[in-house]
Write a structure and sequence with these properties.
The protein has eight helices and no strands. The chain is mainly α and 204 residues long. α2 packs across α3 and α6 packs across α7.
C-alpha cells in the first residue's frame, strides 16, 4: 500500500491522459505479468521470471479505475468472474483435502483473487454514488474505514501468532468470515472507545 501511495501522483497523471484503448492494453500486459505468470508458477513446478518488479497491486488499482470509468457490469463479465471464483474455491478445497493449503490460490497475485476482486467491485459499483443518510451503514463505513484499515492487522496477528489460530481450525469460508468479523468489529470497537477520549475524535 505504501508503494501505491508513492506511485499515486504518477498513476493519476497517467490515467488522466491515457486513452481507453491504451489503458486496456497496459492492463492486459500487467495481468499477464503480475497475475497469470505468478499463478502458473504457483500451480505448476515452474519458475517463469516476469522481469518486472511491479506487483499485482498496481494492476488491480488501475483495473478499479478502468471498471469505474468504462465498465457497466455486463452479465458476461460477471459470469467470467463468478466462474473464476468457483474454480478458485474448488482449487482451494482440493489443496486443503490433500494437506497442501495452496497459498498461491488466495495470493494477491492469483487469477482467482483478481476475479473475485473485480466481481465485488462491479456488484457494488452501482451503489457507490447514490445518496446515503448521515447515520447509515455507508456513513459508518466511511467514517471508520481508514482507522479499521490501520488497526485490523493487530487483531489478525493476535489470532494467528498469539492464539495460534489458522485455516486448519475451521471449515473453509467459515474461518475467513470469522477472522474478518474479528478484525472488523474489533477495530471498530477500539475506534469507538478512542473517540470517547477528549481530543481523539478530531484525529480519528
Amino acid at each position: 500500500m505504501m508503494g501505491i501511495y508513492v506511485l499515486l501522483p504518477m498513476v493519476k497523471a497517467y490515467t488522466t491522459s491515457v486513452s481507453r484503448g491504451d489503458l486496456r492494453t497496459f492492463l492486459i500486459i500487467l495481468f499477464v505479468l503480475t497475475v497469470c505468470i505468478p499463478s502458473l508458477n504457483g500451480a505448476l513446478p515452474i519458475a517463469v521470471d516476469t522481469l518486472i518488479w511491479t506487483p499485482s497491486y498496481l494492476f488491480r488499482f488501475l483495473l478499479g479505475h478502468h471498471a469505474l470509468t468504462y465498465i457497466d457490469s455486463p452479465p458476461r463479465l460477471i459470469s467470467v468472474c463468478i466462474s473464476l471464483v468457483v474454480l478458485g474455491s474448488f482449487a482451494q478445497i482440493s489443496y486443503i483435502a490433500s494437506g497442501n493449503y495452496g497459498d498461491w490460490v488466495r495470493s494477491p497475485s492469483s487469477v482467482f483473487v483478481a476475479g473475485i476482486s473485480l466481481m465485488v467491485f462491479l456488484l457494488f459499483k452501482g451503489h457507490c454514488e447514490k445518496p446515503y443518510g448521515p447515520k447509515g451503514v455507508v456513513a459508518f463505513a466511511s467514517s471508520y474505514s481508514f482507522v479499521i484499515y490501520v488497526l485490523h492487522p493487530i487483531f489478525l496477528n493476535i489470532a494467528y501468532k498469539a492464539l495460534g489460530l489458522g485455516p486448519w481450525g475451521a471449515p473453509p469460508v467459515l474461518f475467513e468470515l470469522s477472522m474478518w468479523a474479528v478484525a472488523f468489529f474489533g477495530s471498530a470497537v477500539v475506534i469507538w472507545v478512542m473517540r470517547k477520549i477528549p481530543g481523539m475524535r478530531r484525529i480519528l
